[in-house]
Specification:
Elements: H1 8-15, H2 20-27, H3 32-42, E1 46-48, H4 54-68, E2 74-78, H5 86-91, E3 106-112, H6 115-125, E4 133-138, H7 145-156, E5 163-167, H8 171-175, E6 192-200, H9 202-211, E7 217-223, E8 240-246, H10 249-257, E9 264-270, H11 276-286, E10 292-299, H12 307-318, H13 321-326, E11 330-338, E12 346-354, E13 366-372, E14 381-383, E15 388-391, E16 404-406, E17 411-416, H14 422-425, E18 434-439, H15 445-456, E19 464-467, E20 489-492, H16 500-503, H17 509-517, H18 519-523, E21 526-531, H19 534-543, E22 549-554, E23 561-562
Parallel strand pairs: 1-2, 2-3, 3-4, 4-5, 5-6, 6-7, 7-8, 8-9, 9-10, 14-16, 15-17, 17-18, 18-19, 19-20, 20-21, 21-22
Antiparallel strand pairs: 10-12, 11-12, 11-13, 22-23
Helix pairs in contact: 2-3
């Protein structure tokens, strides 16, 4: 049977495995039958432009988007290294305006880098009558007091908004401090709010709750700024709270007293802890409707003496009917020693509920003692929610942490050489999307090639491969003969931060010739690199056939940054 003769149900099932972008590029205008099926499919498809080439982006915007503006329901735009200036190009297109997407329900925007662009986005979004999901990930936008007030006003103008994720510069909190909302700033439909890197103070939290009186779920970081004169506004609508608190244990009880209808609570405390009996008292008094609780607490013990006595005291406070039977939660306490060579050595205790649902685990220090209410504590500690991890050969080596098992990791920073313990701790790399490789300066690059290849052979969806600085004594690039079919982004600037441009060695002409002939470079679509001469930039463009985006710094430019996207528009 040929494809055109398949039943519509089978065709739709095949379409479900393809992105909206791929559907347009592969099937649009083949015939009237496929066009009809496509229009039906695109009504429920998500347009994700994060990894599209500039040519295909321009082509889709020019040929298709204007005819689909009343059908597209979800879109994701990004200004990252793969697609620089994409959001600006989309907003400035002649064939359509964002405000014309009358059925758009969800918009996600990554790496928004300017206040002017953010203002333009918010104005355009205010015209969207069906928008319910708004996700904004900024990259260093700074706001003064009037900017922060204007942004909240624009957010309240999104009158149909239900879900909101914001990751904005921390300056937002400082300049929002004096803001007093009025009726024009209130968003009555907003029910779910996640604040990324924004640290909430009591004042900011009060102002947000005033602006969003019907909020049901809230995820945030909270830091006390000693606004003792201000009390938290009671909020009976919030039923789900995920919070990380810094130096604020004394305020936690007061906060929970204002949220009587909570049924889900995940709480991480830094620099202090509350024992099981105190938690039980708070919950029974203030949170009678609570159904699920997850806790993590990290603090520095008063001394390093009697470790077992101290941990037993904590554990026994959680070995109660309340924790084990009512809430079906076990507790575990780990005692870590930092810098054991110096006296007095520094220690900290990590307390967490089981099962482990948190997104981070520290295996960099020695765990010398563990206690738990879990009856099978000698078994492996399985961590299914951790998505980012830094691993060195000295990590997870003690008898306690060696039993940790981390699944579903998506972003991994790995220092070579690695030991056999690595594949015991992280045996599953099926979900790995990003790998940052660091190589010890004393290690010969040839010695780590086989280890790296072994790791890459265990991945299936690895997209981005990054290399930290390697020793100038090594004349070869660290991945000369490495292969990985899924990798499309190479970052060899020497590290993920902007400062890496200035501390890492530049790639010379000899190394670039090796790069051209390496399997990873031949399939590379996005390259981030530091080179010695401008001629190398032209050589990169001419010798890497699949290259779509190039971000480069050149020693010829005396430290100035050159955006290769302006040189390469493919």
């Amino acid at each position: 049977m040929i494809f055109e003769e398949l039943p519509n149900e089978i065709v739709y099932e095949i379409f479900d495995y393809l992105s909206a972008v791929d559907l347009l590029l592969c099937f649009f205008n083949l015939n009237s039958h496929f066009n009809k099926l496509l229009y039906e499919q695109l009504n429920k498809s998500h347009f994700d432009f994060r990894r599209i080439s500039k040519v295909n982006f321009d082509y889709i915007c020019e040929k298709y988007i204007s005819s689909l503006v009343d059908q597209i329901t979800s879109i994701h735009l990004s200004n990252d290294d793969n697609t620089p200036s994409q959001i600006k190009l989309f907003l400035a297109h002649d064939n359509f305006k964002l405000r014309q997407f009358t059925n758009l329900k969800s918009i996600s925007l990554s790496y928004v880098q300017s206040k002017q662009l953010l203002d333009q986005i918010m104005i355009e979004c205010s015209y969207l009558p069906c928008l319910t999901h708004f996700c904004l990930d900024s990259d260093g936008i700074e706001m003064d007091e009037s900017d922060a007030e204007y942004f909240v006003y624009c957010l309240s103008e999104l009158s149909t908004l239900i879900y909101c994720y914001l990751d904005i510069s921390c300056e937002f909190e400082v300049n929002f401090k004096k803001f007093s909302p009025d009726e024009s700033h209130i968003s009555t439909l907003l029910k779910h709010l996640t604040l990324g890197s924004i640290e909430c103070s009591l004042g900011l939290l009060n102002r947000l709750l005033q602006c969003m009186p019907n909020l049901q779920s809230l995820k945030m970081d909270y830091r006390d700024n000693y606004e003792a004169y201000e009390l938290l506004i009671p909020n009976l609508s919030i039923t789900r709270l995920e919070i990380r608190l810094y130096d604020t244990v004394s305020n936690l009880n007061n906060m929970l007293k204002t949220m009587h209808n909570l049924y889900y609570l995940t709480c991480t405390l830094f620099d202090d802890y509350i024992n099981g009996n105190q938690w039980e008292e708070m919950i029974r008094k203030s949170l009678s409707k609570l159904k699920t609780i997850n806790i993590q607490m990290k603090y520095e013990p008063p001394n390093n003496e009697n470790k077992e006595v101290q941990l037993n005291e904590i554990v026994e406070s959680f070995r109660t009917e309340f924790w084990i039977n009512e809430y079906q939660r076990f507790i575990r306490c780990d005692w870590y020693i930092i810098d054991k060579q110096h006296e007095p050595s520094y220690s900290y205790v990590n307390i967490f509920t089981l099962p482990y649902i948190f997104h981070y685990f520290d295996g960099s220090h020695e765990c010398v003692l563990t206690k738990s209410t879990y009856p099978y504590d000698n078994e492996h500690l399985t961590c299914n929610q951790i998505d980012r991890l830094h691993y060195r050969s000295s990590y997870f080596t003690d008898s306690i942490l060696s039993r940790v098992r981390i699944n579903n990791i998506r972003s991994l920073t790995l220092s070579f050489p690695i030991n056999e313990q690595f594949l015991s701790v992280i045996s599953n790399l099926d979900q790995l999307n990003s790998l940052d490789v660091y190589i010890d300066e004393k290690t010969n690059l040839d010695n780590i090639q086989s280890q790296l290849q072994y790791i890459l052979d265990r991945t299936h969806f690895l997209y981005s491969l990054s290399f930290g600085p390697w020793s100038p004594a090594n004349s070869h690039i660290p991945f000369k003969e490495i292969t990985c079919a899924s990798v499309r982004q190479l970052d060899i600037r020497g590290g993920p931060s902007y400062s890496s441009w200035y501390v890492s060695p530049s790639v010379c002409e000899k190394q670039c010739v090796q790069l051209f002939h390496s399997p990873l470079a031949i399939q590379c679509e996005t390259l981030i690199i530091k080179v010695t001469t401008r001629q190398i930039i032209l050589d990169l463009v001419n010798n890497m056939p699949d290259l779509k985006a190039l971000n480069v710094m050149c020693d010829d430019d005396a430290g100035s940054y050159v955006d290769g996207a302006e040189l390469l528009r493919k």
